[in-house]
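User: Predict the structure for this protein chain, please.
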Amino acid sequence: MLRKRFGQHFLTDRRYIERIVAAIDPRRDEVLIEIGPGGGALTDPLLQRVARLHVVEIDRDLCAALRTRFPAERLEVHEADALAFDFGALGDAVRVVGNLPYNISTPLLFRFVALASHVRDLHFMLQKEVVDRMAAAPSTADYGRLTVMLQHRFRVEKLFEVPPGAFRPPPKVESAVVRLVPRSGTAGDAHIDEKLAQVVTAGFTKRRKTLRNALAGVCDANLLERLGVDPKLRPENLSVDDYERIAAALQDLVPDPDA
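Assistant: Here is the predicted structure, written as structure tokens:
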């Protein structure tokens, strides 16, 4: 039974299931975690490729059905909310896949920004408009806070689109499959990451204003000019690298408490 509060739309079209599994290309001894397995449409073919599969599912009835259908030594069912689940506890090179529930997709993606050092890659099916935002280029309508924070940590690649008819029940939106691979140096600097989040949030909260006004109180226009960034530009005009340079420069201005 579908539970609307969980945003459940189950993928049933075998052609798209096969395309997703082929894109993931799982190997037998890899640590693979599936989020939101639902009725097991992806779970079954994934289990044919790996020795053991972890799934994270919040719906207790679906968890019970999965435990009945698959042997415990092959499938470990974690009855949990993916927003609170400790993915890092399963290793530092896990592969995560899933047809993400639409109602938690954005906060879950932001959560993986902080978990990037623990994953080898991510393959998700999401609303097409969310994937377009994830993979957007600067100076486009889709480019925003989600874009910058994800591309700061991952290489983002839109793989293919999936029509509503591939699901039961059909959603009212188009879907797409996306691949995220951590960039080198994923561990990063937590202080710079904090500054980056501050700058990006300030900028895209006032995305139609110039940087001079949008970042007022966060970043001085003189600092932008020293970095070669025109304060008259709008937040959407800056590249991810520009935002990273601003964050690093702001962190350099923070006094060292040990000095």
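Residues 1-6 have pLDDT under 50 and may be disordered.
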